């Protein structure tokens, strides 16, 4: 009894609220150990699923739990939380979490990054060819400079969106802590 209370106290001291606004990652991650079994956590998630179905959608698949904002309250920048549960022993679970945007938004964002990178590489090769042929490289360098600026704008837009969704990320984190306790 005392040992489990000490584990809970240590867990409470370890689980400090994440500093989402100041991290450089676009998809923040976290890890923690919880003094509960995987089955108990999944059961708690199933119980809470019915309580919060108006605000959140909880999906359980094997040892993975996905937390989403419902469609009625979702914005284009709304996050989801992917939780992976790994059993350390019978009464302890290692929890890994990953916040991210909607999969469609993330796929489009990555497509834009690959497009910008591809255009940059093509014009870099063209600039080298023009330089080796002693032709003007001004247009090629201008396009490469524009692609670099565009890449920076994409990154800062993603940071702005992450900052907008921070309150929802904290709500998803609080929901997660409800079924981890």
Please give a structural write-up.
By secondary structure, the protein is α+β, with helices and mostly antiparallel strands. It has two domains: 2-102 and 164-180, Kinase associated domain 1, KA1 (TATA-Binding Protein); 106-161. Helices cover 55% and strands 22% of the residues. The chain has five helices and five strands. It has helices at residues 2-14, 38-51, 103-132, 138-164, 166-180; strands spanning 29-34, 56-61, 64-69, 79-89, 92-101. Strands 1-5-4-3-2 form a five-stranded antiparallel beta sheet. A hairpin with a 2-residue loop joins strand 2 (56-61) and strand 3. Helix 2 (38-51) packs across helix 5 (166-180) and helix 3 runs antiparallel to helix 4 (138-164). The longest helix is centred in the middle third of the chain and has 30 residues, at 103-132. It is elongated, with a radius of gyration of 22 Å. It starts with a helix and ends with a helix.
């Amino acid at each position: 009894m005392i040992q489990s209370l000490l584990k809970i106290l240590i867990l409470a001291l370890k689980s400090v609220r994440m500093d989402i606004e100041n991290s450089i990652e676009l998809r923040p991650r976290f890890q923690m150990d919880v003094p509960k079994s995987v089955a108990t956590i999944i059961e708690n998630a199933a119980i809470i699923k019915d309580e919060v179905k108006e605000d959140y959608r909880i999906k359980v698949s094997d040892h993975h739990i996905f937390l989403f904002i419902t469609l009625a309250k979702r914005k284009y920048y709304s996050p989801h939380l992917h939780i992976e549960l790994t059993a350390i022993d019978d009464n302890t679970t290692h929890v890994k979490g990953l916040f991210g945007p909607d999969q469609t938004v993330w796929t489009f964002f990555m497509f834009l990054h690959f497009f910008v990178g591809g255009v940059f590489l093509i014009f870099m090769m063209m600039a080298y060819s023009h330089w080796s042929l002693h032709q003007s490289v001004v247009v090629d360098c201008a396009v490469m400079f524009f692609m670099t600026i565009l890449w920076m704008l994409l990154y800062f837009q993603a940071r702005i969106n992450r900052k907008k969704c921070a309150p929802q990320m904290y709500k998803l984190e609080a929901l997660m802590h409800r079924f981890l306790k």
